[in-house]
Amino acid sequence: ALEGTTIRAVYGHSVPVMPLTPATEPPQWLYHGTSHQAATVIAKEGLLPMNRDFVHLSEDVATAQQVGARHDTHPVIYRIAARDAAKNGILFYPTSSRVWLVSELPARFLHHLTSYFRRP
């Protein structure tokens, strides 16, 4: 969120928060961009919030690629079987910025798409 001339993280980066919206049925697919180093762990353990409250998922590959490119020049993109995960009890929280939040996501719902090259 914008506050004057600064941007404040509002989705559980530093202060414990609850989602601002109720859990909602997600689209069939969501996406997560990450580094190759993190992808090795994610493939085994699934998506975990680490030092955050939630895992952030994108609605499209391009956004996931941009997010992943912050951590790796050639980010790994996972396609998330979001609707299947929701049917299995995973709660998805939409945000106003086309980001979806989950507390964690088992690896069985992740499908490795590909690695992307960052474009200038």
TrEMBL record:
Keyword annotations of the record: NAD, Transferase
Q: Does the keyword Transferase apply?
A: yes
Q: Name one GO molecular function term.
A: tRNA 2'-phosphotransferase activity
| Pfam families for this protein | PTS_2-RNA (PF01885)
The protein's matches in InterPro entries, at most eight in alphabetical order, are given as: Ptrans_KptA/Tpt1, RNA_2'-PTrans_C
Keyword field contains NAD: yes
Gene3D superfamilies in the record: 3.20.170.30
The UniProt entry's GO biological process terms, in alphabetical order, are: tRNA processing
Homology family: Belongs to the KptA/TPT1 family.
The protein's matches in PANTHER family, at most eight in alphabetical order, are given as:
PUTATIVE PHOSPHOTRANSFERASE (PTHR12684), TRNA 2'-PHOSPHOTRANSFERASE 1 (PTHR12684:SF2)
Stated name of the protein: RNA 2'-phosphotransferase
Question: Where does this protein come from, organism-wise?
Answer: Lacticaseibacillus paracasei subsp. paracasei Lpp123
